[in-house]
């Protein structure tokens, strides 16, 4: 499957969705699924570079020896990759990646990756077709609105092709102590808690001893601007955030569970594609 996308713009505004009216350009950035074992290995090396080297985290022994981030889930994933076609070295052309899981591609007895951190029983019992997203990373110099929106357009097309009803996954704050992001966590709790039938919950929940401000005490716009770009991207599309947060001691980060009914994504981008096709 080849995914083709074009540029979108967005503003740091919790009430505004991304714009979908920017015309195509001649950018060398291409988005598609990995097609060869070599591309998957390159994506894993990129993950290692960002998750461990950039954030100065000591990796597990087998991961360190291989120089790539990998686990038992990789063989069952689709690996969405961002490629810079202007780079000649094939080992460095992949500048971003996202890991996608569909239930039908995984062994029947293999739980979703997120179950290591969250109780996702309500999502499984929902009955819809699920997609789990994770291991998202982009090289620092490519962390732009342009690349982020290309990723979202690619994911939207993937959702449509596979008739996904609900997507979910972990998104991270690069922070070890939840007390340092208490306002951000309070904001997510007050403004983006899902309905009970879609409410995943952290296990254990590292926010239980935090003293959250009330909704009225929070400066929502300021707090939103301080959120990680990936989480802001999810929220702009209408995502919910599950209950609580999980302290990942391996990657030294605080994870929250993203829950997003996919009609909010595919509906937005379907209008974009329909307008583009009508102009053609």
- Say how many strands there are: 10
Mean pLDDT: 87
Structural class estimated from helices and strands: alpha+beta
Number of helices: 8
CATH class: Alpha Beta
Second rung of CATH, namely the architecture: 3-Layer(aba) Sandwich
Low-pLDDT ranges: 1-24
Structural write-up:
- It is a single chain.
- The chain has helices spanning 37-54, 61-66, 121-125, 145-161, 182-192, 220-225, 229-236, 263-279; strands at residues 29-33, 78-84, 94-102, 118-119, 130-138, 166-173, 201-202, 240-241, 246-248, 253-261.
- The chain is of the alpha+beta class and 280 residues long.
- The chain has a single domain (29-275), classed as 3-Layer(aba) Sandwich (Aminopeptidase), CATH 3.40.630.30.
- The strands form 2 sheets. Strands 1, 2, 3, 5, 6, 8, 9 and 10 form an 8-stranded mixed sheet that branches.
- It is globular and about 55 Å long.
- The two termini are 23 Å apart.
- 38% of the residues are buried.
What's the layout of helices and strands?
Elements (H helix, E strand, L loop, with lengths): L28 E5 L3 H18 L6 H6 L11 E7 L9 E9 L15 E2 L1 H5 L4 E9 L6 H17 L4 E8 L8 H11 L8 E2 L17 H6 L3 H8 L3 E2 L4 E3 L4 E9 L1 H17 L1
Parallel strand pairs: 5-6
Antiparallel strand pairs: 1-2, 2-3, 3-5, 4-7, 6-10, 8-10, 9-10
Brief synopsis:
With 280 residues, the chain is an alpha+beta fold.
List its salient traits.
10 strands; 280 residues; Aminopeptidase; alpha+beta; single chain; disordered N terminus; eight-stranded mixed sheet; two-stranded antiparallel sheet
